[in-house]
Task: structure prediction
Amino acid sequence: MLRAANPEERPQPPKRNRAWAILTIIFFIGPAMYGFGTKFYELVRVFQGDPAGAFAVTPIVNYLLASFGFVLLFGWAARNGMFRDIECPKFEMLENERRLDTLER
Amino acid sequence: MNASVVETSQASEPLVDIDRLVDRRIVLWYYFAALTYMVISMLGGLLMALQLVRWNELQGIEHLSPGRWRMVHTNAIAYGFLANAFLGTLHWAIPRLTMRPVLNKGLSYLIFTAWQIVVLATAGGILLGHAQAVEWGETPVWIDPVAQLGLLLVAINFMAPIMSSRGPMYVSLWYFMAAFVWTFLTYAMGNFIPQYVVCGTNAGAIAGLFIHDLVGLFVTPFGWGLMYYFVPILLKKPIWSHGLSLVGFWGLAFFYPLQGIHHFLYTPIPMFLQYGAVISTIAVEFVVATVIVNFFGTLYGSGRELTTNIPLRWFYTGMILYFVTCFQCALQVTLTFQALIHFTDWVVGHAHLVMFGVFSQWLMGIMTYLIPRLSGKPWYSRKLCEWHYWLSVVGIVVMFTDLTLAGLFQGWSWAGMQYWDHSTQVSEPFWIVRVFAGLSMFGGILVFIYNIFRTLTGPSAAAVEASVPTAI
Result:
C-alpha cells in the first residue's frame, strides 16, 4: 500500500535547486512582473485619460480576479502539502482503482 | 469486513461501500440524454450544410429557419451533449477518485431533470426567436437564472467528496474542482454582464471572453481531467509525470483567462490588451505541449494497445487533433494570419475540430469503455464499435481539411478585392464535400446508438460467458 512519506524524513532540496529558483526569479519572473506592471500602468492611464477607455477595464478585472483566486489557491495548496511527494497521487489512484475493480468482480 | 466495502489507500480514511459509491443508472441516463442531443445537434448541422448547397426543404418556415437551427446546433452540442456526457462521467470518476459518493443522490436526479429542462427550453426558446445576443450563450434570458442555479448545485454535489478527501490530490481532481468554479463564473459573465451591466464594445469584449472561456474553462478542464483518469486506467500504468501534469493545470489557470480578447484583433480595444491576449495564447501552447508530452510519454512502450483497445484509440486520436487545433490557435492569433482567415470557414473548421474531433471523441471513447461496465453486458458488436470510430474520424478529418482550405480560398478572394459572389462560388465544392463529411460523422453516431440499443437489450456478460463452451 502506498502512503505519503513523512515530511520530516524527506531530504532537503540541494543548494543547486535553490540557486536555479533564484536565477529563475531574477531572469524570468522579475522582468515579467516589470512588463505586467508597466502595461497595467498604461491601462490605468487609458482609464483616467479617456472615460470611454473604461471598457478595457472589465476584461482585465475579470482576469485579475480569477488569477488572484488562483494565487490564493496555489498558496493554500503549497501550504497544505499538496505538492509534497508530487508523484505519489498517481500511484495511489491506480491502486484504489485496482481494488475497486477487484471488489466489483 | 463486508465484501462490498473497500478501505482507501490511507489507513485513516473511512471505509467505502462499493455498491453505494457509484450510481450507475444516472450515468447511463446522462449518456442517453447526451446522445439524443448529439443527434439533434447533428440534424441542425446537416440542415445548415444543406442550406449552403441550396437544398433547404424547410424554406419559408420561420421557426425552422437556418439561422435558428444553427444556434440549436451549437447550443445542443455544448449544453446538451458535452454537459450531459461530462456530468454522467463525473458521477463515475469523482466517487472512484475520492472514494466517496456524491453529496446527495436525490440532488443528482434533481440536477439531471433540471438540466434537461434547461436544454430543451433553450432549444425551444431559440426556435421561437427568444435567443440572447451572445454567441454560444443564446440561452433565452428567462432560462439563465435556472441554468446558473443548476451549475451551483452541480458544484456543491461534486465538490463535497473532493473537499472531504485528504492528502495531495490527483491532477484530475484539480481540473474538476477548477472547472466547477470556472463554469459557474463563465456562465454568469457571458449571460448576465452583457445583458444587464455593460453595452457596446465592452459587451462585445465580454462576449468574446465568454465564448473562449467556455471552451478553455468548461470543456477543457473536464476533458483533460477525465483523460488523466481514464488513460492510466486503460494502460494499467501511471501517468508519465504527475508533476508535469500539475504544471499543465496551473499554466491553464494563469494563462487561459486572458485569451478571449484574441477574438477582437483589429477592434477598438487598446492594442496592448490585444497583444496581451496574443502572448497569453502563445504561452498556453507551451502548456499544451507539456500535456501532450506527458500523455505520449505514458503511451511509450504500449503503442500496440492502440490497435486493440478502441477507447484508448479514441483518446489518442483526440489528443493528436487537440495538438493540431492548438497549433492552429498559435497561428490564428497572429495579426497577419487573422487578417486572412477572419470570418472565413477556417474558423468553422477549427471549431468543429476542437468540439467534435477532440472533446466529443474523448467522450465517445469513455462511453465505449463504460457502457459495458455500467450495463454489465458486453458490446453487441465490436465491429460496429470500429465502424463508429472510423466513420467519425474520417468524417471530422475530411470536414476539417475541407473547411480549412475553403477558409483560405475565401480569405484570398476577399484579400484580392474580388466580388462577394466570387468567394461563394469558390466555396461551393468545399460545401458539397462538407455535407458528405457530416453525413459520415452522423452515420457513426447512428451506428453507435444502434450498437448501444442492441447491447442493452442483449444478454448479460454472465449469460454470454455461460453460453460459451468451456473448451474455448
Q: What stands out?
A: The interface with chain B takes residues 1-4, 39, 42-43, 46, 53-56, 58-60, 62-63, 66-67, 69-70, 74, 81-97, 99-100, 103-104 of chain A (CB under 8 Å). Residues 36 and 42 of chain A are 10 Å apart (CA to CA).
